[in-house]
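[audit] Reproducing an earlier prediction to check determinism. Same input, same settings, fresh worker. If the tokens differ from the archived copy the diff job will pick it up downstream; this log only records the rerun itself.
[audit] input (398 residues):
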Amino acid sequence: MYNLLSGLSVIEASSFVASPTAGLYLAQFGAEVIRVDQIGGGPDFRRWPVTAENDSLYWENLNRAKKSVALDLARPEGRELLQALVRATGQFVTNFPAQGFLSHEVLAQERLDLITVRVMGWADGSPALDYTVNNSVGYPMLTGAGPEPVNHVLPAWDLLTGAYAAFALLAAVQRRGATGEGGEVRLPLSDVAIGTVANMGGIAEVLYAGENRPRLGNAVYGLFGRDFTTRDGQRTMIVVVTPRQWANLVAALDLGDAVAAVEAERGVSFAKDDGLRFTHRDALFPLFERAVANRNHADLAAAFDAGGVVHSPYRTMLDAANDPALVADNPIFGAAENPSGFAYPAAGAFATIPQATRQPPRPAPRNGQHSEEVLTERLSLSSGEIARLIDAGIVGVG
């Protein structure tokens, strides 16, 4: 946690991954992020993984460092309170529909400089999820050896959209500071996905070639990179991106003569051209398979580390969670009291700022934990009025 955004307050009305991620990243850098949910929790409040008591570890971690206000959004007075909070604060992140009571046009009628960042599925407002958008842009047909599509389990487009949404909010705040203008930024998952494909050269690639890229399994496109199995049965990924790494990899495996023979036979030099190493992988991979299979993993890892060769064994997530370098000794993690009651390392800001003191991660709120505080501070409601709203079931407290 850092305080780079202290003084910035944001209302978040959202669920699932992308929009809550935007709020999380803003909160990790010091913004006051007030998440507004339905009393009892929104549609993602019990999303798996959950504890035996049905507390969502997913929700708990995507909502760290935020405040929680609980309202009955099915009732007009609850919706009016959310609208009032957005207008009073001036910054709004949501994945609610573009039309309706949280449309930017409605909200900005009484707050002309309002900034709204809206995460969407498709640009026309129709719904989409990360996994369906991923299918639409073609990545499952590139993953694995084929011919069946292979879905990945990482919600990449959600996470990229969330990060882009946080960036977009700060960009809009910067513009407002210079011009006084508010406005709405719409971020469809589909546009983030296809735009990223284009930024990686994918659109140009398939149009230039007139065909799709072949399925490569675990090989890395355009580089010398693939999984290999050591003598003691450890599968490890090896990837080479620089001439020095290539030279050190060949030396570590004592393959200088064998590689030189392939170069002479095919009239090429692999020393400085990663594209040639990829093109001639049919001749190179068998050499490296045999060499790696004759060495134990620990021996190879030491030699690769000494030569700056990029490699990593395949591990489970439980292995990673128990790796001190990744978690226990990593300063991005710390302790926090969690609503679930389960104690585990909690992640704070991913960035390290050497000139600033890192603060420990903060817990997620309980549903409605800050309702009274926020309604008092933001809307100047009296204690009696808040009590009336609580008694009427319009405001929830945690």
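[audit] rerun output stored. Observation attached for the diff report: The chain has a mean pLDDT of 97.
[audit] end
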